[in-house]
Amino acid sequence: MAAELEADGRHLIHMGIGEPDFTAPQVVIDAAAKAMADGRLQYTSALGVPALREAISTYYLEKFGLNVPASRIVVTAGASAALLLACAALVESGREVLMPDPCYPCNRHFVAAFEGTATLVASGPEDRFQLSDQMVHANWTNTTAGVLLASPSNPTGTSIEVGELTKIIASVKARGGFTIVDEIYQGLSYDAAPFSALSLDDDVVIINSFSKYFNMTGWRLGWLVVPERIVPALEKLAQNLFICASSVAQHAALACFLPEALEIYEARKAEFKRRRDYIVPALRSLGFGIPVTPDGAFYVYADCSRFTDDADAFAKQVLREAGVVIVPGLDFGPFTARTYVRFSYANSMENLQEAMARLKIFLPSQK
Ligand SMILES: Cc1ncc(COP(=O)(O)O)c(C=O)c1O
Question: What is the pLDDT of residue 367?
């Protein structure tokens, strides 16, 4: 609908998009150009270019103080392929995977692709929209195979508390299940020190990506960290399903870890935090409910029930009448489908301010 309106000449402000408005730093682009000029364009190992696996391993050591050997790192075509491979390796036909509702929409489909069932567990602001240990206990059945979490989360921007995560990992392990933690928004946490669930347990399956913190969405590059014992299965799956991730992207991504690139990423992270600190109070003062202040990613999950009992229709009306693109809760599961909308602040401060001004004019007619 937004594309149609734009084709008709309407000026829209995009707060729907789930990707950084920043693109890869020049040093990364230069590394890609050099890789191409040097002819480094052929298939790589299914597990990824050894130098990149080593660079990711060093990143865990330097940023998180974690010892993650390169042999446990599998480079993939984005977090999407990482999630697909994890589900291919861990989900058997007829088994269930617990995940919070709301959560990233594709998770259900990755599980369904291997004939598993995603069990969506309704989670509200009291639990930061995340699974709790109590929910794991209450929903675990003899067909449950594991849990799939994301921290910080899409669409809520909220992280799971470390104490709760520790309990979940232990409970799941005691039941013989797996815990997958999607850390794609890991570098974008604004209120706490950088954290990985790997600091809690080496058996957790970690999903990560160059898409968000490293600003490389279209390059299609991500990674998994897995226990050593499942690397051979993942290698076979990756080889069969993808052959390898993009070789140019892999060579370019080595430059992400150079000091000058890391400096740019940290400056951009500070800019995201500045926007978060602007947009959360601005939306609250417009009448949206934001019961948990988002601590990461670039999303605000806002309760719009003061204005509507149909968030889907509301999002369409905001688009048509205010010219602001937002995403209805429906995309993220049934629980908050009618009451919440997601705002992405991956847009310039100037555009965010204009969006708030437009909403200020539009909203009074909805009360
Ligand atoms: C929580 C989460 N996981 C995974 C993905 C997929 O990311 P990519 O495949 O670009 O790494 C996204 C994209 O928005 C996401 O929000």
Answer: 62
